[in-house]
Design a protein that fits this description.
316 residues, alpha/beta, Rossmann fold, UDP-galactose 4-epimerase, domain 1, 14 strands, binds nicotinamide-adenine-dinucleotide
Length: 316
């Protein structure tokens, strides 16, 4: 049976994406891969794969007759600053091995870029086509990755599609070392501790999205007819933007005694280099992208699911 392979499948996005793909195509049609030797958390086909090992990647593609790859394996922004060399090897070399495999076996590929491609010279509402001068190694790898994707699409006809995800909020697997992790941590802190120390300043505003919208955007882009995909670097997508203080206030409406203090660390400089908002009109026009969640409906839904997960009773 032709199958779908997901790299970095045990991460924040991968674990939710694998469940969604398996619900659509059947458990046996989706092969999850990640660094861990074994995994039972996702409950289906799993193989260990370090994406820096191009030969193993090729072997798995052949063995499982893979026709579609969601390539999520990556070091994120904060981890990438701590290990820039490794970030390049995983994010750029890993992608290039995959694109070579895609070229040889005519695979369809999804690869996520990020708002980290933008930098201080990008306008505060980032247009689709704009200056890309990131200040982090993560951003550098994402710009290189976007250009690689466009190159393989135009030179070799590889059907590779990409989204510049904003910060993603979810209640499944924890985030893996990014600059927007605070927007997930704060929910757990509100329910479990009643207080949170935020690593960004209160006025820091960033583009964000709730995971169900990110999954809809991903699957919507992959389902669109190829001729509608006019951007082969990566599409801007967004749902809403909020500051750390606005998210704290939205949570305090549900958890009135919740307190937040602010102690910005090295991630503040990363956040300051990114735009406040993203213009995603190209995605809306080309393949009908539209988010469903805004800040309030995201907060409501997150709290319902987290209370269930953490077995915390709802407010009377
Ligand atoms: N989560 C977000 O807010 C966000 C925002 C923008 C872009 N993205 C992008 O989406 C993709 C997935 O992000 P995520 O949030 O799920 O990240 P994550 O850190 O939660 O998961 C990444 C996974 O990749 C795996 N990995 C790391 N090195 C690897 C290697 N050498 N070989 C194989 N696997 C390896 C990790 O074990 C981890 O499970 C990444 O490309 C990331 O840049 C995420």
């Amino acid at each position: 049976m032709p199958s779908t392979l997901v790299t970095g499948a045990l991460g924040q996005i991968g674990s939710d994406l694998v469940r969604t793909l398996r619900a659509q195509h059947g458990a046996e049609a989706v092969l999850a891969t990640d660094l861990r030797e074994t995994d039972t958390s996702l409950g289906g086909l799993y193989e260990p794969l370090d994406v820096r090992d191009g030969e193993r990647l090729k072997a798995l593609i052949e063995q499982y007759e893979v026709d579609t790859v969601y390539h999520l394996a990556s070091l994120l922004s904060a981890r990438g600053e701590q290990a820039p060399e490794l970030a390049w090897e995983v994010n750029v070399n890993g992608l290039r091995y995959l694109l070579e495999g895609a070229r040889a076996r005519k695979l369809k590929v999804f690869w996520p870029s990020s708002i980290a491609v933008f930098g201080p010279t990008t306008p505060s509402t980032a247009p689709q086509q704009t200056v890309l001068e990131p200040t982090t190694m993560y951003g550098v790898t994402k710009v290189a990755g976007e250009l690689l994707c466009q190159y393989y699409a135009t030179r070799y006809g590889v059907d590779v599609r990409s989204l510049r995800y904003p910060g993603l909020i979810s209640y499944g697997a924890p985030p893996g070392g990014g600059t927007t992790d605070y927007a997930v941590e704060i929910f757990y802190a509100a329910l479990e501790d009643g207080q949170y120390t935020c690593f960004l300043a209160p006025e820091t505003r960033l583009p964000m999205m709730y995971m169900p919208d990110a999954l809809r955007a991903t699957l919507g882009l992959m389902a669109a007819p190829a001729e509608q995909i006019r951007v082969r670097t990566s599409y801007n997508v967004t749902a809403f933007s909020f500051s750390a203080a606005e998210l704290a206030a939205a949570l305090q409406e549900h958890v009135p005694n919740f307190t937040v203090t602010y102690a910005p660390d090295f991630r503040q400089a990363i956040a300051d280099s990114w735009p406040d908002r993203v213009d995603d009109s190209a995605a809306r026009a080309d393949w009908d992208w539209q988010p469903r969640y805004d800040l309030d409906t995201m907060v409501d839904d997150m709290l319902v699911h987290l209370r269930e997960k953490l077995t915390i009773p709802s407010n009377p």
